[in-house]
Amino acid sequence: MNSVNGTAALKRGVWGGLLLLMVLFPVCQGGAVAAEARDTLIVGMELAYPPFEMTDVKGEPTGVSVDLAHALGKALGKKIVIQNMAFDGLIPSLKTGKIDLIISSMTATAERAKSIDFSDPYLQTGLCLLVNKESPIQTIADLDRPGRKVAVKKGTTGHTYAAGHIKRAEVLVLDKEAAAVLEVVQGKADAFIYDQMSTYQNWQRNQKTTRALLTPFQQESWAVGLRKGNDALKNQINGFLRDFRARGGFDQLGNRYLKEQKQQFKRLGYPFFL
Amino acid sequence: MQLDLTDIHKRFDGQSALDGVTLRLADFHSLALLGPSGGGKSTLLRIIAGLETPDSGSVEINGVPLVFSDEQLLQHRRTIGTVFQAFNLFPHLSALENITLPLEKVHGYSRDEAVAYACQLLSRFQLQAHAGKKPAQLSGGQQQRVAIARAIAVKPRFLLFDEPTSALDPEMTAEVLDIIAELRHEGRDLILVTHEMGFARQVADQCLFLAEGRLVEAGPAARLFEAPEQPAVRNFLARVLRY
Amino acid sequence: MKQQLMQYFFAQRKGSGEAISLPARLIGVLTVFLLVALVFTFAFSRLQYGWHWGEVYTYQRKFLQGWLVTLFISAAALVLSLIIGLFFALAQRCRFLPLRYLGKFYVETIRGTPLLVQILVFFYVVADAFGVGNRYAVGVLTLALFAGAYISEIIRAGIESVGESQLESARAIGLTQRQIYCYVVFPQVVRRVLPPLTGQFASLIKDSSLLSIIAVSEFTLNAQEVNSYTFSTLESYLPLAFGYLLLTLPISLLSRYLEQRYHYAT
To answer: Considering the entire predicted model, what is its pTM?
Structure first.
């Protein structure tokens, strides 16, 4: 009688132990191994930002940043894997080791530099306004008045600017660029603070309901993001960027993806930096 | 009381429950409806209670015809007391409140009057200790006794009982039957559907035997039980009284 | 010896129910707590995550404001949804057919589509067509319509669960239809639907987090914003979870209490 109970208890113990292992095992994986040691680099970007980060008709990542990433991989002799995720999830993912680099048209700000490292900048742009046609706004100063509504996309420098500088107007934080544009189009927001390129594109698509103030009121530069303490990798990336520009790589990207914008900006007299 | 039924027909979903029942009872105090299940006893009782409308035929009680309009039936139901086999009481109200509800809302008693009178009735049935309990906390027999208290509280012209003890065990059955007998001896008029043959024989003046929706035999209780004329009645009684 | 040990970890049978001693309860709760803490500590230690609670703490006002907005939106939506739910529950039992079919249409469409889709459609399409711009009002209304569909089904089931025999009994004592509804049906319906209704309130509180997508400044959006400013994901979202629990736990306890209080054999 006792031996029967004994084996039953032993069985239970074994199952319990296995179950515990099963629960703990996945947790053990995914340690933050040094990026240089491996030969794959996972690059995070939000594929919702044409023509820099987007997907083609087959659903494959494509765009300026994608090509840049692959060129980088070639130069460093590493395989590149593109990881799509929400923009405001990029830095947390980088910090926890889910991705190794951020190439997502991300502005290098002092605030962000507290958490991660940035390469040298590779593109100059600035914050602009997409304004609703009915709204009387002409400058960023007009925007910060009671009764006005400002749309921003969560986690972007536009959001940070609004949090720091917009005190009297209502700030609407949306999580998708398309939603923010819709707010402006429908007149629910007076303006959308976003980068120059996208503002231009959004205006082009909604000419009946919006207008664009394309002189940037805050200059910004984009850079590649990487984890702190990876100086070796940072130097490699900076080296690559210098070479790439010298070879005319950026010009090629500009012609391939931004030809129309290049011409339009030239016509309108805005500086085009890529 | 006096009861006149003329050619009552009632069908449910194509089934015939009452098939031309005609009856004239001139003067009685208690009437028992007997017969096999599904014979039409409950249906007839419900028609007399004003809960069901016959497809055709007429009913006269104490010389007054029963008018089958919603308004008139509502008034009719307010003057009589009905006790069903089960689920008489409302589960969210206490025993006391179950009795005061019709008194207050239908018969216009004030709250105090209703409570006083209800307590009186509960005492009569030795239920005063259970006044505050909900039906779920009472035994089957106690529930039925509260239901009877409620039925007589409204000072009805007559009482109707539809198999009041069929869902009870023998001891509780006796409890409830005692009360019905008591009411009978007080001189109240009542019509009773029951399977308790012994009780029916003791308490009823007149008896009806219904089978398959038809009136098979009617007459004084004593005669029906001792010397039934119809073979159906004889066979039924023989079967039922065997044990 | 073994029997005694069993007593501290297993619920003992007692008659047809259970008997759990106080030490057993304490040991059980503690064990679960330790196990969960163990799993999480192990996970975090592996992650080499740098905690920055200080930064997040400077945004405490944002958390509090968001929490209050969530509370008020949920409360407003609940009251409105009760009215809507009651209306459509009765409408579906109504004899006027167009109203009855409208009720069925409403319930089926709302229950058959995701809340996220409803929020987007109501705010960006319907409200825009009617020129209503206030996102808080539209948000509350959308939540109320959403919960109202579920509530109307709860109420309808409650009404139908009042036994036929009770209605018969009520007729027999001479109550009018109106009186039957007032004194017999509704008191019982209220008692029966209170537990599932409180559960619905808890769901409403959680569902209100979806209003963040139309930039309603409620709890979740505020926590997400703090996350964007500080890049401290866990320090932003753990208080978020805790804040919601603070709202929903009392409600689920209330729901359980009501269930026990109004449980009686019918």
So the answer is: 0.75
